[in-house]
């Protein structure tokens, strides 16, 4: 009997994941990661109630320091650099499929499982594990592109192609106490405040105000601190101008937020760094693909070139507006398999 360690956040998705695997005959143990100290108590309690209902063991793994170092510090530092970070993209390979997987293998488990909406397939011909989009609107493959072959080989996503409504139906069927629990927010370590307020509290320091300027250098107002803004932002600027203005660049060194008209925000190509490729791709070869430059955006046709082991250039078939430095650009093939991706420069 295969032993599976299920990462349980106390939510519906991971709870149904555990229930499905138990029903399929796996030897299932639930584990909740304590990543945020006292703030994690309710998640731990909810997960424990679910494991009691399922009759499986529940563990708590304290990774608070590691999460702070690898995810929260990264998140804060990226905003201080004038970039827009992706904490989930950072957390998945380092924490959930990194340290948690290490713990699972060290303690005799064959696999780890999570409630992600994505699919993993093994290709016998190429002998590689492939990551594929979910067939539903909840697809989360974008956040998983940094996973390695060894990580994919040990991961299970039992609800990968479920609609969320069906997941909730299953939660009711299994009699899980979290069947009607609301979905968690995007950033798990920020609650009831803005990301900028979180950063100020974390650093115990107010963000420094500075100038809004146009691309030609004309001052048009004062900003409230660069951590409050992201490239492409239009709302909340408090600027009255002859036409709508958007954040086109953030200069952290000079504490400037540069504004432009919409047409100036369209880019024909972008460069990405810190790349990871799940599917084999030769360096300096032109490859046709589809790319998603934000998690909520649709994929668009493109061509890309790997410039080196860690960098690539993506050329859009049609110019895209305001690609944001710090965000991930994730590449897909025509069949929905994740080719790879990287961080927008």
CATH superfamily of the largest domain: HUPs
The number of helical elements comes to: 7
Please state the average pLDDT score: 97
Termini, distance in Å?
Answer: 46 Å
The CATH topology of the largest domain comes to Rossmann fold
Structural class: alpha/beta
Strand order of the largest sheet: 12-15-14-13-16-17
In short:
The chain is an alpha/beta fold.
What does this structure look like?
The chain has 345 residues and is α/β, with parallel strands linked by helices. The chain has three domains: 3-173, Rossmann fold, CATH 3.40.50; 207-260, Adenine nucleotide alpha hydrolases-like domains (SH3 type barrels), CATH 2.30.30; 265-344, Translation factors (Elongation Factor Tu (Ef-tu), domain 3), CATH 2.40.30.10. Helices cover 25% and strands 30% of the residues. The protein contains seven helices and 17 strands. It has helices spanning 12-23, 41-54, 64-80, 87-106, 149-153, 164-173, 195-203; strands at residues 3-7, 27-34, 57-62, 111-113, 118-123, 128-133, 155-156, 210-214, 219-223, 246-251, 256-260, 266-277, 286-292, 300-306, 312-321, 328-332, 338-344. Helix 1 runs parallel beside helix 2 (41-54). The relative contact order is 0.13. The model has no long low-confidence stretch (mean pLDDT 97).
């Amino acid at each position: 009997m295969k032993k599976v360690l299920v990462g349980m956040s106390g939510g519906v998705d991971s709870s149904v994941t555990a229930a499905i695997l138990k029903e399929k005959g796996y030897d299932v143990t639930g584990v909740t990661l304590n990543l945020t100290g006292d703030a994690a108590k309710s998640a731990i309690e909810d997960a424990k109630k679910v494991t009691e209902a399922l009759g499986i063991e529940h563990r708590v793994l304290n990774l608070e320091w590691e999460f702070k170092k690898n995810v929260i510090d990264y998140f804060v530092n990226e905003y201080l650099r004038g970039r827009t970070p992706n904490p989930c993209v950072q957390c998945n390979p380092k924490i959930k499929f990194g340290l948690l997987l290490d713990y699972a293998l060290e303690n005799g488990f064959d696999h780890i499982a999570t409630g992600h909406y994505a699919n993993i397939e093994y290709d016998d011909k190429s002998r590689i594990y492939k990551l594929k989009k979910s067939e539903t609107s909840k697809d989360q493959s974008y956040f998983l592109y940094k996973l390695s072959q060894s990580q994919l080989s040990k991961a299970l996503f039992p609800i990968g192609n479920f609609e969320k409504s069906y997941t909730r139906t299953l939660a009711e069927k299994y009699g899980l106490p979290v069947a009607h629990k609301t979905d968690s927010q995007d950033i798990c370590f920020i609650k009831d405040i803005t990301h900028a307020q979180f950063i100020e509290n974390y650093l115990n320091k107010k963000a420094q105000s500075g100038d809004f300027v146009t691309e030609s250098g004309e001052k048009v107002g004062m900003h409230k601190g660069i951590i409050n803004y992201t490239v492409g932002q239009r709302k909340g600027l408090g600027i009255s101008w002859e036409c709508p203005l958007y954040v086109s660049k953030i200069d952290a060194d000079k504490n400037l937020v540069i504004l432009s008209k919409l047409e100036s925000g369209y880019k024909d190509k972008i460069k990405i760094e810190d790349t990871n490729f799940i599917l084999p791709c030769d360096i300096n070869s032109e490859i046709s693909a589809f790319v998603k430059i934000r998690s909520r955006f649709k994929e668009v046709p493109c061509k890309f070139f790997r410039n080196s082991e860690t960098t690539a250039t993506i050329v859009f078939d049609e110019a895209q507006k305001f690609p944001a430095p710090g965000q991930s650009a994730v590449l897909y093939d025509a069949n929905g398999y994740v080719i790879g991706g990287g961080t927008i420069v």
